[in-house]
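Lab notebook, bench 4. The sequencing result for the construct came back, and we need a structural model before the next group meeting so we can plan mutations. Quick request posted to the team channel:

Model the 3D structure of this chain.
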Amino acid sequence: MAAIGLEPFLHVRTAKDPVYAPVGNKLRFIADYTGLPQVWELDRGEGWPAQISFTKDRVSLIKYVNGTTDLIIGMDVDGNEKQQLYLLKEDSTVIELTKSPEHVHLYGGSSPDGKWIAWSSNRQNSAFLDIYIQNLKTLEVRLVYSGNGMFSVVTWSPDGSSLLIQKTNTPLDNDLGVLNLSTKKLNWVTEHTGEANFKSAHFNKDGDHIYVLTNKDREFFGLALIHLKTKQLSWLERGNWDFESLAMNQDQNKLAYTINEGGISKGMILDLNTSNIYTWKTPMGVISNLKFSPDNKKLAYEFNGSAYPSDIWELDLQTIQAARLTYVSRSPVLNERMTEPELINYRSFDTLQIPAFYYQPKNASTKLPVVLYLHGGPESQSRAVYNPIIQYLINLGYAICAPNVRGSTGYGKTYTHLDDAQKRLDAVKDLVSLVEWLKLNRNIDFNKIGIMGGSYGGFMVLAAICHFPKYWSAAVDIVGISSIRTFLQTTSPWRKKQREAEYGTIEKDGRFFDQIDPLHHTEHIISPLLVLHGENDARVPIKEAEQMVNKLKERSHPVEFIRFNDEGHQFVKLKNKRTAYKEIVKFLEQYLGK
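Done. Here's the predicted structure in token form:
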């Protein structure tokens, strides 16, 4: 095939977060047709979607208000993650609800009668999230629960008298409780010892039980039923992979969920009346954001695969056949150029088996330059989804390997904790073992190895080139951490405690941070480095990039720095994605070639 440029890969649009209209045949979703995520509406009788919102900032959330055609939408400013909530009317009028731009607002759903919404915010204390409800007619705001913790709303009870709320203890441990809105009494229902996570909870019809995904006393998430009065937990379905994305239909007799099998989704439907379980066929990829239609005949979901960029699909619940609803991501010029990965496993330095996705150019015959692509988190996972820069580099002749090193999610609790606190460099050693494995088992050029990652993946990049410098010919750090110490000192206050559960604290582990932080080992770096960062990053402040770049410039090391003044922790705007990806490709071509 003849070579093509970056633009077709970059201009692949995505559709996500489907929500059915309460009545009729319409479905709304978020799509970046215009280069900025906005709300679009699909009338399945007419074909092409219509744009519904016209805001200057990205739309990051859409939810219908119960019993109405109004939407709650969420937006921040230039990626600063201080989400504000708005009411989007049928005529596209936008009404500001939260009106507190310096604070975070996490949406918690609308009351059954559609008169109130719930959300959490750090308005009272920047380090904590409290619970509020708001009247949609008068816009009155009421504080209904506060405490020294991270509280958020999961959903309203069926009768609207209480809220199911969550207290996040760490990113991997939480509790659920029922807050009575009249008495303000809070009844915790998931008290536990050890680490346990409870997510995607739904009330049953009578409001006396909840269906939930949890890994309580287990390595993996399964499907359970919890009796709210007795707090007794009963398992419905379990397995040796994590269950994800639980959804319930309006008749409350069907549940939909997915199983994450090594980074690839399998969709499941459970009929609560018959206990029958159904699955359906999909390409290789990830299913998320499951939504039942109001008539209980359809299930919409977001599907994102390496060769199938994010679009909205729909499952017919009678025939159990899936069909693609939107073609936002369709690009005929790319149809034959998309590459799906091979799932590999390799032994690390201590014999631990590490999974990874390996992408190889089609019809490759010579030794290949290879780029290791590292996920963030670290409580996250590389999955089989579309990534424009990965696909473009493959088409240029690069092999790409995306490992799920120790500390990744998806492989059980034990695996996720193998890089905690002072075990941090063990995950970096996994990267070295991967290079050695690729050298023996794949046709790569050992003199042309690049490494690239974002957020915590950026920290891993910097740690790798500092502590194991001889392996890398080029490195790309995207919004990465250069010092865990300074990161904990400057990240958003409400995130700090959550991150300390993973990294440790300055008081206890500060000396260890100084021993491993890339910022203190820049003299060992021999590979050229490209750094990209958003000015408004609330998670990893741009200081992390600036201090690393300044130290390298002091010794005239080859380093390039690109600052985006109107982005945060992610590059959302098309113009910025274009700049970022072009510079990454140019940089890798200069130092790795083909």
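The mean pLDDT is 94.
Will bring this to the meeting.
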